[in-house]
Structures
1.
Amino acid sequence: MNKIKSDAPESRNPVSIYFKRYWQLYLLLALPMLYLLIFKYIPMIYIQIAFKKYSIVESIWKQKLAGNHGFQYFIQAFSDSDFRRALRNTLVLNLLDLAIGFPIPIIFALLLNELCFKRFKKVVQTIAYMPHFLSWVIIYGLALQLFTPSTGLVNMVINNLGGESVPFLNDPGHWIWTYIFLGAWQSFGWNSIVYLAAIAGINNELYEAASVDGAGRLSKIWHITLPGIRSTIVLLLIMQIGNILGGTFDRPFALRNNLVISWAEVLPTYIYSHGIKGLQFSLTTAVGFFQSVVGVIFLLLANTISRKLGERGIW
Amino acid sequence: MKKRVVSLMLAAMMMVVAVGCGKGDKAGSAANGGGAAADASALGDDGKFAETHHITVEVYDRGNDGGSDPVNNKYTDYIKKGMLDKYNVEVEFVAVPRWTEVEQISNLLAANNAPDVCVTYDIATIETYGNMGGIVDMKDALETNKDILPNLWKHLGETNIYWDQHPDTKTIWDIEAVRENQNDVNTFIREDWLKKLGLEVPTTKEEFYNVLCAFRDNADKLLGADASKLIPYSISFDAGYRAKTLNYSFADPNMTDKEFYINSFDDRGFTIPGIKEGVKLLNKWYNEGLIWKDFALYGAGDKTEDDLIKAGYVGAFTHNWDYPFRDGENSIDTNIKKFGGEDAKFIAIDPFEDKNGTHTKWISGPVDRKIFFPSTNDDILASLLYLDWISTPENIEYLQIGDEGVTHEVGEGGEISIIAATGNDIQNSGMNIDYTITTNGLKLVDPALTEKSLAYSYAGIDPQLVGDADKIAKTDNRAAKSYHIGAIDAETGMGDPLNQKRDQILDQSIVAPVADFDKIFDQGMQEYLAAGGQAIIDERKAKWESIHGDKENLD
């Protein structure tokens, strides 16, 4: 006992010095870690439902392995035309969102940044944030008031001008654009906050120096602002690419109807209707697992590419 | 020092979180218990429990305009008091939205959070959870306690108690409420519009079509400035139900029990031969501007279509046999007079003839909602006693007609007529059907009086209208039977996905261009069958043949 005491007194061990000094910070970190553990890591135990014959009453460890070495439900999913369609729709809608919904907040942030009148800028910003706080159910209600073929406001205007009603909501081809447009409208203001913050962090002296060199507005945007927020853009792009098979549930679920379902059923709604409503827990856990794996692959891929191109990436 | 305080507070918070998480397991362990045995000896000599028991009971929430809180109102107080006085059982109600009840009860069951006494119209949900071990087998508890459940046994009878019994295992996962009135759907038309245009009441499909065309072509005369809003015939996204008599008029009225059974997983008859012709007719009408253009855009429970009907823009529609009369002050019949003029009214008609020239209506058996106990129910006896109490004739009568002078009046011939109530006296569902879970339809203690009062049971509605609608709904009925075949494995979990698919195919077929109809319908049907419909039909056929042999019809 004595030997140990003399050999390793607390004060001489670098690890214990470190902890003695910083233990408060680790305690602060513990809470978010606990959150991750409880809500993100422990639930992962239940991924095995994807490989087992699920029963509501049996313990997860006692359930039998599903057929085909546990891959029965993956095979079932890929032979289900509903699933394949949901997979296609998820990809198409998310890619369109990426192509159209992603640049809009950047452009909006750049425009806001160029405004001279502070008060006007604040008003515009606030109005642009507002839709973010509306639930999708309410937005669908608004869309019905505006876009239904017979009583929608927009269609009534078109009719009065002598045109035919546009099937914004009831024809799949039109519906996709309504979906993308409403999504962009709902979120562009909110998503621009990150970019505005990044722009605010750019050193003002750069702009002054550029002015001295005779740079105009556009060349300042191109040569200073955009490079200044490039790492933010890349970061958000990587995150969104990682979510290519994910996405929210409430937006497609609230906006869809029976006529456009062939383009409106996406993986999250498929999981809901087949898993929770159809009680096929194993099947939809398999689908969810597949979604996550693809998401991780895309995330890693995008990260690697961005690092190859000289950006920092996520880590 | 300050840092230390903050850290300690955080640590304390974490403890709270950790403790909070520990509590979540309670429901899970209860599920494994599988429900306690029901032993009548737990009751004292006075028929009461010595200690107060507590059960939860599902009640539909219809979200009516001006309705009361479905879990706490005059009638729930009546039930709570009755149960407490008689059995020393505390009753707590759990509201489940009526129009999404199947999804909601699934969610509750999946979360081990369902009420002790559950009710649903969807047998597939019960069978699915039953197969997973999530539903209590009521057989022994019902039979051993028969003598303390006299009202339940008398009211439901062996027919409804054994209706869904499994033929091999003899388990009873659910018992069927009694449908006093088996009427299904009726078609209603604006009588004042017919008169205004000098038209006869249509009695055939051809005549009905001509009337709809006349409505469309005379919109200016009927609605004036609002002419563009006129809808000759309105349906909803659930076209299979909302054009049921039309669709079924193309089915063979002499269809065998076997064929009907095989195709009856879908209660809209989607796979019954001939139904396609009905949908095709709807498609033709849609393309001719006779059907509401926006019907598919509004989901379950949406009131937009009701509002259009009440506002007087709709010429005809098909719905529950008494739909325009329901809801007292808020009924279609009452509202249409406010907006469409004093003489505006909907009358029931019977225009869809089948190939025999009759108007066969395929109605359900004397069964209604299915009552079951989830395995989280740890008080089977108290739950059964609740069912007995709610099946007691006096209690049914009070819940249905309420207090004299408040919710009903007694007429000269002794007939009971329901009057509109307000505030706390209001009945959220017609005759409180949502509380009398073992009963659907007027059932007074005296059967003769019931008969006499039926037409008077809608507040503020002309009894003549109700009587006529009842007569039409009872014309050429063909009731479903109990086939005693038990659960079909292929149906597990398919109820909701297949119903959704059916609605999608029907809606897409109806709005298709006429030339594309066959392609879209046939392709949809193929998809429906491939997604599980065919497996269900095959299994139903095989099970029928193994149980009933080569019999085509049951007695």
2.
Amino acid sequence: MKGITHFMTGVAVSSFFGRAVEMAEYDRSWILILGGMYGIMADTLDFKFYAFFSRDDHEVSPDPLRPDARTVAAQIGKAIEQAYDENRMVKIKCHTIRVGADLWRQYVIKFDAEKGEVVVVMNPIVTTSQIPYVGTEPKEHRVGRYKLRVPLVETHGRPTVVDIMNGPQIGFKRTGDHVIVEFIPFHRTWTHSFFVGFLAAAVAALVASLGAGWGTGWYYGLVAMVAYWSHLASDLTGYMGASFFWPFWKKRTPGLGWFKAQNPHSNFIFNYFCLIVTIFNLNRFTYIDPVSRTGHYIAASPLKYFLWTFIIPIGAYLLLAKLFGRKEKEEKEGVVLAEQAMQEEAVDQMEGQFT
Amino acid sequence: MDVLGVILWTVAGTLCASIVSLMPALHIYNVSGILIILTMGAGTSTLIPMPYVPVFMMAMVVGWAILNTVPALFLGAPDESAIFVVLPGQKYMMQGRGYEAAALTGIGALAGILAMLAASPVFFRALPKLRHITRPHLFWIMGLIITYMLMSEWPKGSGRQKTGWGRFIDGWKNLGAGLLTFLLSGILGFIILNKPIIPIQYSFQNIMPVFVGLFAIPWVLGNIFCKTEIPPQYICRTADLDVRFWSRGGFGGFLGGMIAAFLPVVTGGIGGFIAGHATAQRDDRLFIISQGASKSVYYIGSFLLAFVPGLELTRGGMAWMLRPFTSAHSYEDYWRIMGVIMLSGGISFFLLLLYSRLVIRLINRINYRSLSVAVLFILLAVVWGVSGIMGLALMFVGTGIGLLPVYYHSRRMNCMGVLLLPITLNMGGVGQHVARFMGLV
């Protein structure tokens, strides 16, 4: 799920705590902000802290003046074979190729498990906004292939585009008789565990206790913990999974595979649902007459409320998406360019065989 | 109120806004504020017949919301809501597609207006209840927006340092600059809201010099010192846009604009940013359409909320200025003003295309750097004229803060801390303690 989806999920689950909503309303407490903050915390820890300290075994740093796809493919291929031979995780950092203040050479890495090869394509120069300057692709050694001598399993599902700012880290791990490719292997490890969620929430409880006393502080911790755990629960709906039970069981538990993390429809529906749930809960714990604690601004039953605010609108949205939505798969422009280059290379090779 | 009068004052308001919107730094609320003081000082209008005042003002807002794209995009002088359009817009300009970018924001604005029309029944039923439910919770909802703004920024380091700490420091440069920008803007906001240094006669323009400093001047300086050269601009005949794309961008922008219109202080840019994340938008064209819609729905929608029967919600500068003079509670008032929005929106869209062509002709003839220098002098002159020497001083402070995100490649949106931080803390009951701590009260 995207960052905002985790954020809104955290807010939605924390709104179920009636006392928290009442504290916000009557005591001007900021407790519900913890919901959003801790909802997104696990990814924050990964990408803003842990990512910098994840060790690289190898670094791919192509020459900006003479980019050679064959060299890059060979470097990555050898790292895969090393992971197999040494039976350990080997991580490789794929650096970006900066060629100007706002210009980058884009390249695409494809792990072709079927053919057992690593394919690298040097694409045109792009701006920081990833707009390509057509015609700037290298004339020589644009496509590089490395034939692997070990079997490969690719779990990311799409080619990796390396272009601007900071390049990705890719991990290779031997599992049984093949090597698994893990995109950004530092992600969803120890930070995505119930135990770390508990620890992080304990910090919130401690800080809140210093300000408001233990009688209230533990409640802040509870809200923060549930929000943190909601992140783990929503990551379970994807493919990658996470190390939910670290440090007791360090292996990544696979996700249920219901949605892809970047799917716009699932993210939007999830976000909308969280919004509707939050409003539902705010209404539930907000009274027209706070003294006698009676009366709500929305008097409809939960069934009627969710029918009108969620089921009907989302039904209409899905129908419209089905009728008018994009039928073909959306691909990144860089990937499309790389696929074209690979096809052209194949045609050239075939023509070479006949002449 | 006769139909002809409504049409006449709608056209007049749109044309008036079209002149104001071409002047960098001038905000429609500054001009309408002066207009209200000049014509309605005695509590009744002397220039515009009283019943037509809301019509004229709404047309001004609509015209401004659509046409302020022109200085933002072509002259690099955005306001706080247009700041998001400038970056992709300038990228389009560098590809000779500035006209297309301007047209896309206009198309987005029309989508936003249509979405407001379609959502009117929902406004009548849902917004009054939503307002009652969220009223005691607004402070933490705004706190959530701030939290997400700050937590969702990504590190931009090169990742080439040898040690983990080296990479961490490199990666946190832009994040740290973003946090610092927000904090400094917030402190500035506390100062100007608690101890205005603008002379009393200019007090209603208190915030304007700061906004010009934070948002417009850094862009213009960037254009001057980076020696930006604009290639010849292509005037396209079609936008090459299908309904699916248009509706997706328009829908996202509408959501963002409504978030901004409903919540205090949150601008169209921030609303559009949040809605863009929530609807998982990635494409540049989609982003421009969405921002065009968001910006328009924010300006128009915040004033429109004053006309929603049973809502009684005052949001946005125009609604606050007119609040003592007008009250509209009937459905008839609402639909009339909706008609004004549609008519003014249509006229403004075509004016946007016309003005874009004219400015492009200017850009093609005059060196862009010289034009940027001229814009800088206009900004200085307007700020000086409107708020005096102290306004200029405030503008320079704002510029210093506004340059931080430019140099560290962090989000310029963080400059909105100038209003977000003090007002959110005030609403949460903490603002007075902070002000006291800063020695401001």
3.
Amino acid sequence: MIDYLAVLSIFIGVCFFFAGSVGLLRLPDLFSRLHALAKADNVGLAFVAIGVAMLESDLINSLKMLLIWLLVMAASSVSSHLIARHALRGRKPNE
Amino acid sequence: MNDWLLLSFDILILFILLGLAWLTCNTKEIKRGVTLFVAFGLLLAVIWARLKAPDLALAEAIIGAGISGALLLKAMRDYTEQTSLSSETSRFYVWGINAASLALFVLLAWGLWHALERSDGVRLAENVLITTPESGVSHPVTAVLLNFRAYDTLLELAVVFTAVLVVLAMGTKQRDFGKGEPILIAMVRWLAPILIVTSGYLLWVGAHAPGGAFQAGAMLAAAFILMSMTGVRVDSMLNDSSMRWLLVIGIGVFTITGIVMLLINGHFLAYSKELAKMLILLIEAAATLSIAAALTLAYLGGMPKPQQKTQSAVKIDKTEEGTS
């Protein structure tokens, strides 16, 4: 039972990643691309991490998945914010 | 079924890796090339993990993708006027480099084939696994790096040290980062302590699991680099002479240990068996500090100017007050 739930969760996560990638490729400008990418990736990674954590029997390893998700979420939301802010100011990102 | 899926996954990432390598070399815009190079490094880390070499995967992810990417981006920032490739790079050079790469590939492939097919069947790996318990640590990779071939590791540290000497000789530090975005400062405030603790963990765990001085040192450097991006002058926390001490402490401790062991045991770097674990940990701790200092200095592009020290110390205090 829990295996099916895990697979379902990973599948949902992959769908989010897919949507995020399509958004990155298809949306017209930087801001909407960032929007699609950051949100889809955070939620997608959350579902994948939950799925993998369910498959893992060791509690410590499951908690590590949670930690990975939190770190990636912090990094990706902050970097999206920084990219968007630099673009908004009309500066080059490497300045 | 499972094997078949894994095989197709491996083939897929292999082709993506080759594609990324091709794009990295052939892109006209340097910024795009650097981004592709970082992606290449991350994918290479995944491949090392698939080859069941977690030590290499860790090192590639931290050093290959993380620190090298940061170094390249910093170089681009400091030399903005030179960031477009000249389009008239001579065809002669391009084909020369291609031919040299191809020759290297053929040589390596021949070497691998020779090693696998033509050898007597005695593998070093088996000998390593048999003698690992005598090395003082239980992780075979650390046993090889810090005991069986400690001399090579000492020379590798010397290479890193020499590279940083060249960086220092090239001139003074490039311009500072301004005070960072508030949200970046807030994140680094959380992240830097985690990175430092993780670095210590990697150093300690290297005795019995994947980890070790190079990965730990690079992670410590990552913490310093992040802090410098938020406008905290990392170098001002340490003055010039303590930075120099940090740079040499790894190679110094390593060499002194080697000479002491030469006097006691008659061979350079031949550890006494009962002391081996402690000595390896001592050397690794010193090497971690040196590698972190070296990579941070390479990123900053040189020693700080001494007269700015007091000024920037005040700047840190202001940053502390401003956000707390």
4.
Amino acid sequence: MNPETFSADTVIDAVSAVFMVVGALMSLAAAVGLLRFPDLMTRMHAATKPQVLGLFLLLFALGLQMRSWWVWPVLGVAWIFQLLTVPVSAHMVGRAGYRTKHLHPELLSTDELEAVVQQAAGKRGFGDDDAATDRR
Amino acid sequence: MMQLVLTVTTVLLSLAAGGAIIRIARGPSLLDRVLAADVLLAIVGAALCIDMAVNRHLNNLMLLVAVSLIGFVGSVTVARFVADRREKSRES
């Protein structure tokens, strides 16, 4: 094979094409996870893939396609912004999901919050917590 | 090659958006819908990224940041709303 066919442009195009396809596959994996997983916590696990890794791959492909150095800091800022906001919103959603009992306790391997919740409920009386468990 | 990549990623992202919309329609609770809407926004951001990369422009970059900001504010607000409502109904 002629080595001239593998110019730098072709290699960069191929790498960014692979990154774009893998980044789109992350979105598809998140959708499959949303449809197949049984409860909120496992769906949250699947939903993080396109938000962090998928966006990273696509921004990397974009930076490769632009062929200039000054776009990399801008893309890095966009990715770091996503990296700062996604854990906060995931924390809020997970906290609200735990409080409103949107989870299957038999599927959890450990529940580190349960002792704390039991202690807090013991101080306040168990009647409220039993009613909340039944309502799930 | 870029046209082939564009076709493949369009099909993948369309399937992903369809799955997220099905989860929004079917999701048993409000938090499932919020999560699926967040994934749908991430898919929109991915589509913007691919459009920029294939056509080699940077016009959508601010829109991408705005979309992720909207997803953040929306999911945090709805999570607070869900928690708040339950606290009130417990006290009453």
